[in-house]
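Re: weekly structure request thread

Next one in the queue (140 aa):
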Amino acid sequence: MNKNGPVVILEDDEDDQQLFIEIFNNLKYENEIIFFKDGNEALEYLNRIEITPFLILSDINLHKVDGLALRDKIQTSHLLHLKCTPYLFFTTTIPKTYVIEAYSTSVQGFFQKPNSYAHLESTIKKIVEYWKECFVPDEC
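Done, posted below.
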């Protein structure tokens, strides 16, 4: 995990993208934010050897390759698995089947998108601060 690396956000709603940008700016996080609207584009980016993201925040419902399928592809890729990038779901709906499937692929978190800006900002801050403090095997 690269704590200074980009934050990859899989989100196809442009209003939600703007909220993420505002929150990361308000919290003064210097990580670059990179958005993808579908899992195929994100997978192509993540497979680049020189790219080691800090976090992946993923919606479930995406075009072409959804968040669950993308997580599965990352988990089964030797190269991507070794990057130790935390993968967290951030989605509007929380069907129990999605949560069970996500955790069966060793996802590091599953969050419902809050309805208020303040709650969303608080949640993002908790997530980022947790992972900034956390150690992964490549840091030991």
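The chain is about 45% helix and 15% strand. The longest strand covers residues 87-91.
Next request, please.
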